[in-house]
Amino acid sequence: MVQAGESAAYGEATIGPATAEFTEHSLAPSGTRVVSVRVRVDPGDPAIQCFEPPLRELEGLQRQWNSASYELDRSWDVERPTSCIADATTPYTLDVDYLVPLDASGPFVVDIESGGLLPEFARLVVAP
Questions:
Q1: Residues 6+ apart with CB under 8 A from 106
Q2: What are the tens digits of pLDDT across the range 73-106?
């Protein structure tokens, strides 16, 4: 597990540090709030390919949430990718939003997973 503010090797890539913050969004349903997570990725050579990372509670009920980018009407943006960029040659930042219930307060973890590296994954702690 990669602690907040730290990074780790995953395959040929360096993942982290990761950050999170609670943000407001006009499309967030009542009883929810948005957790915005940013994860730095130095893609390595060859560049890592990864899925949109799930967000999990580290303690308590240990619930899990998937990206809410579609629900928040956020279309694909190369400047704010939600999954790894397969042809990247320079570092970039994943920018993923999640809808969580109001009682979800963290700390959370995000799991960066690449099909070619499973069952290994990079788990990064984020605390808004």
A1: 20, 35, 57, 58, 126, 127, 128
A2: 877 778 889 999 989 999 999 999 999 999 998 8
- Decide if 18 contacts 37 (C-beta within 8 A): yes
Q: Which two tokens stand for residue 28?
A: 């967030």
Other Cβ atoms closer than 10 A to 126: 25
Which pTM was predicted? 0.92
Structural domain 8-126, CATH architecture: Sandwich (2.60)
Q: Which parts of the chain are beta strand (E)?
A: 8-10, 13-23, 32-42, 55-57, 64-65, 92-101, 108-112, 122-126
Torsion sign across C-alpha atoms 113, 56, 54, 84? negative
Q: Where are the chain's structural domains?
A: 8-126
